[in-house]
Specification:
heterodimer, A: 347 residues, alpha/beta, Rossmann fold, 8-stranded mixed β-sheet, 4-stranded antiparallel β-sheet, 29% helix, B: 319 residues, 9 helices, 12 strands
């Protein structure tokens, strides 16, 4: 049933995206990544930078799932788009199977796009309204050179069965507006899967869906991840869904990863005060929530144009150490094995 | 529940819409009481009619209304009998107001926030402009927006601040009841917790009642005194929050609760298979029967509302 679409391309130019990774088999590695956007006044005068991603490091192994948690404006979408090759890094690099994404030529970029699937946040906005499911799912294969119509059709059916858009006949000729939110998201996932990617980047894939459907979609992604040995980056602002999905969780604040850990460890013993605050603010259904006020750190996330000196959380942090947190940027400390926190409390 | 502290009593409220496909029964026979200074959460999935319920009570109706009937008693008077103009002048935004969904993104970009928040006061002839601005200033203090933000424009405010301004706009006329339609669904966790802190404080300080419309069960527990679960245009369960969050009765509520991912308890969430029925001619009998694991032969008949010691549930299991 499996169709290797990349085999269809010109053999000499075929870049097998993985298999000979240099860096200990890490599928994706992000090194000192900075993505800044220049601000201009009157369209040409330099007026500073938005430091959307400012020094991010991590490795993603093959078949591993990570969740990136952060509030809106913390840079998680910029990070994702840089990984997808849509933004250029200002400094640092993103490499996929040992090759730097930013240095890809047109052909390599094309195979990279086939190797990385993208699941968007708003399924309705992500699907072209004038195409039916069949054409939506065939489109990537046409672009990536699957010329045989029957082969494309077969692949569409296989993937639809996999994302449980069944019975297939009921859905192939539907347009996006005729589908429910959950079904639309399945189409988006099917489209991301159609070229047999090695990495899936999912940006808040369930935040627009109803509670009862959310779990279904998360399960589906989880199933695909383990059956295809996919690497997945799951981006969300909702801590409670991450634990059902990924092994690792990264917490992002103001352009930086402030804590990286295994999910269970992070939930049981968070190290960074920001993570603590996030955990405390996420409610479980319980009538007692209505009886008390929640402790929330004062203020709001800082402007990324002029982020605070030192630790970016220090103006809101209850454990701020004067003369240290407000002047020096904390490096990643590793107080417990494989549990990193960028916080001076753990020096 | 004694009659004299009842603020709002709804009886057999129906709101149907005409569409090209037929009549959509968005709100279909809702009965409901709200006490003074009480917060009731209306929980339901998208398309279950929860926003239509709020619009029906506030008479914010589109043009394609097919049926609009029932009784709405506010402080003992049936407001359904009032003419549209009288309703606008004396009820809507005077006694009942609303924070519509995504209100924070609906602020007028070319008006100062303070002027917008004060506008309901002047539009309802409750005060002149200066007095209205003073009232807006007081409301800003209640919702925790710095008073100098009165002179700012919407784009200068963060999401959380804009949501607070929308809340101040709903509170400025000191209504007895405020509908909150998904007030925090677009906000971050910390901002969300902040807004709920504000709502709890306002409920105590201003003795206002809230009807909170949401699909998010976990955050709904932040404010709820009572919970109403809505499914396919009907309320299927209504009970005290304390009992609802520990022991929901209706099979739909049970499955909905089980679908919530929990942070502090290690429990795998489950999901509800199937889809809610179309509101264009919903099935007769129990509307959840198709998806219900405990369905039996009586479910083909319309279930009655059963009162299990103050815990109302519309399900044959408890008959």
């Amino acid at each position: 049933m499996s169709v290797d679409v990349r085999r269809r391309e010109d053999v000499q130019d075929q870049v097998r995206m993985s298999g000979d990774g240099r860096q200990n088999g890490a599928l994706l590695s992000v090194r000192d990544l900075r993505v800044w956007f220049e601000l201009k006044r009157f369209g040409f005068l330099h007026a500073g930078y938005v430091h959307a991603v400012d020094g991010v490091n991590f490795d993603l192994e093959r078949g591993e799932a990570i969740g990136i948690v952060g509030e809106s404006g913390c840079g998680k979408t910029t990070l994702m788009k840089t990984i997808l090759g849509l933004y250029e890094p200002t400094e640092g690099e993103v490499s996929f199977a040992g090759r730097e994404v930013d240095a890809f030529g047109t052909r390599q970029m094309r195979s990279y796009r086939a190797a990385v699937g993208y699941v968007q946040q708003d399924p309705y906005g992500a699907l072209p309204p004038f195409m039916d499911v069949q054409s939506i799912l065939e489109e990537p294969m046409k672009i990536h050179g699957v010329k045989d119509a029957r082969e494309r059709e077969q692949r569409v059916r296989d993937v639809m069965a996999e994302v449980k858009l069944t019975p297939i006949e009921d859905y192939v000729d539907k347009f996006p507006h005729m589908l429910s939110g959950g079904q639309q998201q399945r189409v988006v996932i099917a489209r991301a899967m159609i070229l047999e990617p090695e990495l899936i980047v999912a940006d808040e894939p369930v935040s627009m869906l109803d509670a009862s459907v959310r779990v279904e979609i998360l399960r589906l992604l989880q199933g695909l991840q383990s059956s295809h040995d996919l690497s997945v980056i799951y981006i969300t602002h909702d801590l409670s869904t991450v634990r059902y999905f990924s092994e690792y969780i990264f917490v992002m604040y103001a352009g930086k990863l402030v804590e990286r850990s295994r999910v269970n460890e992070l939930l049981a013993s968070p190290l960074h005060p920001y993570t603590e605050a996030l955990l405390a603010a996420t409610p479980d259904p319980d009538y007692r929530n209505a009886l008390t006020q929640k402790a929330v750190p004062p203020g709001e996330p800082p402007s990324l144009v002029n982020p605070p000196k030192g630790c970016r959380f220090h103006p809101r942090c209850p454990h701020m150490i004067e003369g240290l947190c407000d002047t020096e940027e904390p490096p990643d400390f590793e107080p417990e094995p494989k549990h990193f926190a960028a916080c001076w409390l753990h020096r | 529940m004694s009659e004299n502290n009842t603020l709002l009593r709804i009886e057999d409220l129906r709101l149907y819409f005409r569409t090209q496909q037929g009549v959509v029964q968005a709100v279909d026979g809702v009965d409901f009481k709200l006490r003074q200074n009480e917060a009731v959460v209306v929980l339901g999935e998208s398309g279950c009619g929860k926003t239509s319920l709020a619009r029906a009570v506030l008479r914010l109706l589109p043009r394609n209304v097919d049926t609009y009937s029932g009784e709405i008693h506010l402080n003992g008077t049936n407001v359904m009998e009032l003419g549209d103009e009288e309703f606008r002048r004396t009820i809507r935004w005077v006694k009942m107001s609303m924070v519509p969904q995504a209100a924070m993104n609906a602020l007028n970009p070319v008006l100062k926030v303070g002027e917008q928040v004060a506008e309901p006061m002047t539009a309802h002839y409750l005060a002149d402009k200066d007095e209205a601005l003073n009232q807006a200033r007081r409301m800003f203090q209640h919702v925790g927006v710095p008073v100098d933000f009165l002179d700012r424009y919407a784009f200068e405010l963060s999401g959380g601040m804009r949501q607070r301004a929308a809340l101040a706009m709903a509170l400025v006329t000191m209504p007895a009841l405020v509908f909150l339609d998904e007030p925090t669904s677009a906000l971050d966790v910390l901002t969300q917790a902040n807004i709920f802190n504000v709502l709890k404080r306002i409920k105590k300080d201003l003795e206002v009642s809230f009807i909170l419309i949401t699909h998010d069960i976990a955050t709904s527990s932040e404010l709820a005194d009572r919970v109403a679960v809505m499914y396919a245009g009907q309320i299927v369960e209504l009970s005290e929050a304390r009992r609802f969050f520990s022991d929901p009765l209706h099979p739909y509520s049970k499955m909905l609760m089980a679908s919530v991912p929990k942070l502090k308890v290690d429990q795998e969430p489950t999901f509800i298979t199937g889809h809610p029925p179309s509101l264009l001619g919903p099935p007769s009998g129990c509307r959840f029967a198709d998806r219900c694991p405990s369905r039996f032969d009586r479910c083909v008949e319309e279930p009655p509302v059963i009162d299990e010691a103050g815990h109302e549930v519309k399900c044959w299991l408890y008959a």
